[in-house]
Amino acid sequence: MILFAVLFPLFIGYLIICFIYRQSISFLEKIALGFLVGTSFITVQMFAYSIVGIKFSVLSIILPWCLLLSLIGFADKKVTFGFKDYKQIEILLVFLILIKVLYVFFEALIKPVVGFDSLWNFSLRAKIFFFEKTVPLFSTHPYFLGAGMKSYPLHLPLLEAWNYLSMNTWDDVQMKIIFPVYFCALLIIFYQALLREKSRIQSLFFVFLLSSLPLLAYHATIEYADFVLGTYFLGAVIYLYEFFKSRDVKHLFVSSLLAASCGWIKEEGLILYLICFLVFFACNRFKSFKNIAVYLAPFFVFIFPWFVARRLLGLEFGNDTVFEIEKLFYFHQETIGKILYKIFLTDNWHLFPIAMVVLLIFYFKDIMSTNKKYILACFALVWGFFMYLYLFTYNAGMVMSDIILSRNCLVYFPVGLYLIGLTFSITREKQPGIIDNSHPSSKKRTEKYAK
Amino acid sequence: MLDFLDDFFAVEQMTARMVNNINGVIINDLSLNVYVFGMIFLVVVLWIFFDFYKNNFFNFKDLGRKTLIIIFIFWALMEIRTSQNYISYAENDYKAFFGKTLDQKRAETPTTGLYQFVQLIKEKTPKGAKIKFFSLNDDFVKMKLKYYLAPTHFNQVELEEAEYVAGYGVNFAPRYVLGSTSYGWVTKK
């Protein structure tokens, strides 16, 4: 039944994505996107049930989605897989990626939930929601909002609760299957996005690099929300970029769905949604009110209800008292060394940070002259947001205690790697009007004309 | 040289702190990254001299391309080295968890003896019983107790109202207990 817990939201999301995209994207991409979208809708549905007083059960959750069966006509009629025309190096890369995927599945499914934050913020609440068959919304309830970290959004605890409901037991080992599945979705979306502009070999190589990031691979085996948030944010940026390329509203809508889901996963997800909206608005301005409406609509489904509920339930925003001014604008210079050390001199990211620096030094003009500047804008704004938190707010204490810095990077480093993958080209680019003497034949031509 | 190899091939132990940070290889108190950056710089400089020797026209963006290629090669090599860690983690987890029941797996997780104590509570106290817990002054232990016992066996109250008293990791115990493990006990008040 754990497979049902994964396949049902995946199927719902797949039908929704098929309806949006029809046949314009691949089956694999629809599956990956479908899982992200489907799980978001399931958890919003469960939250809505808690508000109106409907108890959770598998039947009560799946029943309304039967209406979506009418969309089955848009599903792919024929799906083909094959490695016939793959070169040896491509097969090797696929093999290496699959080894990492298998490792992630093994590590996730061999042991139960162990991490402090995963227990306190998500898994304890998921257990309560499963046993109570609802989200306790009365402050007098002993397990109000699942106890634990009450102020955190509910996507992950509700998704874990959905898993328990499907299994009809509290099994915190098998429940963890959702994390490696998110990992696969991340890799697939990343690959398909790169494949639209780059060769298969380069796309596979960058997927290998993405799967090789040590902290990302580790987080895909545990029950923290940072990596899940990073998956949704990467998807939001990718489809926003696709919108800027093609001006197809479908991409804008999917981007907005994923960006709004970020606000449903973690508090800082709201900032990620606002960043995506800001970048979109910087391009769109008021030219198309329809596009603005398309981007705002998912906000009112995924983010607005939870924030209204929090306000009504008397919960503060943030971990501590976030809006104390003296805690928000004090320069903590002691964090600079720590930040540099953690980013460049640890093995959280292998050599991604230095690769990003090299990219910005040598390719900045190229990026700024194309639509890739919007990807860079998203990356830079998130980086700026976190730097502000570390350098100017009370979060400096958490940076010095090694608590948040590297995990926050999980949110936007995949976006940076995507930008590198899009910009980098293994072959030398020819520059017009310049005689390229590096090539033997052109050197001979130059010497001949010189004579 | 042997020390260098020992440091290079040392497996970083998987700890709870790894969720926030993976240190990587440390050689002579320096991160491996420092050595890799040095090697990348050296290779890039050699490549520039090689191009100069071949009378190739200097191209700024091509230098960026070459630098990234070298970075990716070293990145892949680092991943090969890290694979040793992954094999070790998988091996350890296989030995600790494979083939065990759900309860046995939970008993393997930190903190030692806590899950056995939880099972004792569930066995000796009825659902919803009012219990006064004495435990280590450790947030992780308190939180894990709540995780395993809620919502059926975690009706935590003060001593005056309690029907049962339970202690985990404390250096005292009542004379008569309903049950005990190596790390904890439970008694009826």
UniProtKB/TrEMBL annotation, chain A:
This is Glycosyltransferase RgtA/B/C/D-like domain-containing protein. The chain crosses the membrane at residues 6-24, 31-52, 58-77, 89-110, 177-195, 201-220, 227-244, 292-309, 339-362, 374-392, 404-424. The keyword rRNA processing does not apply. Keywords: Membrane, Transmembrane, Transmembrane helix. The keyword Nucleotide-binding does not apply.
Automatic annotation (TrEMBL), chain B:
The chain crosses the membrane at residues 32-50. This is Uncharacterized protein. Keywords: Membrane, Transmembrane, Transmembrane helix. The keyword Membrane applies. It comes from the Bacteria. The keyword Membrane applies.
